[in-house]
Write a structure and sequence with these properties.
Blueprint lengths: L3 E13 L5 E13 L2 E6 L6 H8 L7 E6 L2 E2 L7 E4 L11 H11 L4 H14 L15 H13 L5 E5 L7 H17 L6 E6 L2 H7 L2 E6 L4 E7 L11 H14 L27 H12 L6 E3 H8 L3 H13 L3 E4 L2 E4 L1 H8 L2 H15 L1 H12 L4 E3 H8 L5 H17 L4 E3 L4 E3 L10
Parallel strand pairs: 3-8, 3-9, 6-7, 7-8
Antiparallel strand pairs: 1-2, 1-4, 4-5, 9-10, 11-13, 12-13, 14-16, 15-16
Helix pairs in contact: 2-3, 2-4, 3-4, 6-7, 8-10, 8-11, 12-13, 14-15
Length: 436
């Protein structure tokens, strides 16, 4: 076994809810990043992957457990660990050269030496000739190159990449990913280990020596897939496609019992996050499943290809379909239920009725909203009332996302209406209480 660089032992992280109670974002995370490896971390949005990276980088402290760097406890940031963010995080008033030099300047390096180091990395990352450009003058791909150069100029042992390619178009992201791999394999950068957080399953399989699957609520590592394929890898090869299938299977497996998710296992509580799934995408997958050559069952990568959804979008839609009883998963395949088959054949009005019925049965937040509206004499209630409730168990951002989904779904199911100007949720006009 190669030498451990960063070790997480039973790491936990908690945040306080609006009622003062602890909400676990990470719990019992055990992970070792070793010399000479690239590890990819996959998981659904909100599972705590980015929080784990920030703990490893020393940007935030763990509440439980221990973080070791080279066998010693990590307190604060480590010089040997650098992070690349999805959002580029560049200073807009600084040139490319000055953005890249920033970390070296903070360390007190002499201007001549930091200029020399920055110029070398700028050339290495393919930005020669743009040293004097401002971020606003660069494309998204070039801005991300600056972010990567700013990390590499510090000559880190460990490079943490938090969805570093996800804000880029597909071709730009693939090209930049391949260039990073070439720098790594050729030894042109001193980095000894890379950890990549991604939503893109193909990206993970193409880059990594190990793929870790993160569970949610709370976040923790629940599965690991070693990858021994030599580099460079071909995305179209049978070996890569089989690995992608395997990762889909691992990501859609039940984390509670190690078995596969069925529609009976998907149960929500009132304060849980809701899948960020668009209704059109849900219906699109069901309609695709019903057509040839699938006839109600399909391989998940094939469905992703047919619907042109990203892996992150697809997993959210799958969660929604399972939650509402329209589909279930087995062996990395999606199967349409009998209810899903009837839904596809139904008219638009019938679909809305079926959708509304499933919402009331399977989504406690929507059932709670409907009950509150029916009990109120006016038949309408402000959205802030439900946001306050959700903030007891979810962060501010998660609470708003959950309510937005509930409103979208509830409106489609004709369970209630929503006034975008006033933020008021109300019963449909025909269900309004009679005036006294």
């Amino acid at each position: 076994m190669s030498t451990p660089i960063v070790e997480l032992k039973a790491v936990g992280k908690h945040f306080r809810g609006a009622d003062g109670s602890k909400r676990s974002v990470l719990e019992g995370v055990d992970f070792t990043l070793r010399e000479g490896e690239i590890v990819a971390l996959l998981g659904q949005s909100g599972s705590g992957k980015s929080t784990m990276l920030r703990i490893m980088a020393g940007l935030i402290q763990a509440d439980d457990g221990q973080v070791l760097y080279r066998g010693m406890p990590l307190y604060g940031t480590a010089r040997g660990i650098r992070m690349v963010f999805q959002s580029f995080a560049l200073f807009p008033w600084l040139t490319v050269q000055k953005n890249v030099e920033l970390g070296l300047e903070a360390q007190g390096m002499a201007p001549e030496e930091r200029a020399r180091r920055a110029e070398k990395v700028i050339e290495l990352i393919g930005l020669s000739g743009f040293e004097g450009a401002l971020p606003r003058e660069l494309s998204g791909g070039m801005r991300q190159r600056v972010g990567i150069a700013r990390a590499l100029v510090m000559e880190p042992e460990v490079l943490l990449m938090d969805e570093a390619f996800s804000a880029l178009d597909v071709l730009t992201g693939e090209r930049l990913r391949e260039e990073i791999l070439e720098l790594w394999q050729s030894g042109q950068i001193p980095t000894k280990a890379i950890l990549v957080v991604s939503h893109n399953i193909e990206e993970a399989v193409m880059m990594a020596d190990r793929v870790l699957i993160f569970a949610s609520d709370p976040g923790r590592v629940r599965a690991e897939l070693p990858i021994s394929l030599p580099q460079p890898r071909k995305a179209e090869s049978n070996e890569v496609r089989q690995l992608i299938d395997k990762v889909y299977e691992l990501m859609t497996a039940s984390s509670r019992r190690g078995g596969l998710i069925s529609e009976k296992e998907v149960k929500l509580q009132l304060g849980d996050r809701l899948p960020q799934a668009d209704i059109a995408h849900m219906e699109g997958i069901l309609e695709t499943l019903a057509e040839e050559p699938f006839h109600g069952r399909a391989d998940l990568p094939k469905i992703a290809e047919e619907t042109e959804l990203t892996d992150a979008e697809l997993l959210e839609v799958l969660n929604a379909l399972l939650l509402l009883g329209f589909a279930y998963l087995t062996n990395g395949d999606i199967l349409m239920t009998e209810l899903g088959g009837r839904y596809v054949k139904a008219s638009n009005i019938e679909r809305q009725e079926m959708f509304g019925k499933q919402l009331l049965e399977h989504v406690p937040l929507i059932a709670y909203i409907c009950h509150g509206l029916q009990q109120d004499k006016s038949g309408d209630l402000p959205e802030d009332l439900f946001l306050k409730l959700l903030r007891f168990t979810l962060s501010e951002e998660e609470a708003e996302r959950a309510l937005r989904v509930a409103i979208e779904w509830g409106r489609y199911g004709d369970l209630f209406e929503y006034n975008f100007n006033t933020g008021v949720i109300q019963l449909p006009e025909e269900d309004q209480p009679a005036a006294d």
